[in-house]
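User: Okay, second chain of the day. Same drill as before: sequence in, structure tokens out.
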Amino acid sequence: MIIVLVRHAPAEGHGEAEADAMRQLTDNGRAKMKKAAAGLAVMLAKETDFCLITSPLIRAVQTAEIVSDYLQLKCFNKDDRLIEGQHEDLIQLIHEHSHEQVLLLTGHEPWISSFSEFLSRQELPYRKGAAAAFRLEDGWEESGADLLWFMQPRALRRLSVAHKFIQKEDE
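Assistant: Same drill. Structure tokens below.
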């Protein structure tokens, strides 16, 4: 099983929305995430069976919707456990979806970095829109997961050019 963690794209500041849960992506954040999602599609081009689960906070849902569009996902759910991202809750969520080939989780700091460190035993500095993929083998909870790749949003956006070529090959 592959787990992909995606941090939400740039959103409104804390004072710009009535409540933290209502903070939306900025126009610039949406534009950047569209390119990053195209790069993410390139990184996951060989994978076929996806399920995306997102935090229900608006900025994470909006990020997940953009990613879902680029990956043409049929499985898209919201889960309150991705608001706080407690390790025990995330492990339970992974076990619930262990039949999936690729499970994408979209959420927030600080749990994204904390859970990445738990998985890979290394610190990964997620910027908004960054993503990392991990392979989970039997016993991963004790021994850790294999970090397949970690990409900051700028690198994902640069890959968006390759997305056009992949689409042409599929036609």
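The radius of gyration is 15 Å.

User: Thanks, on to the next one.
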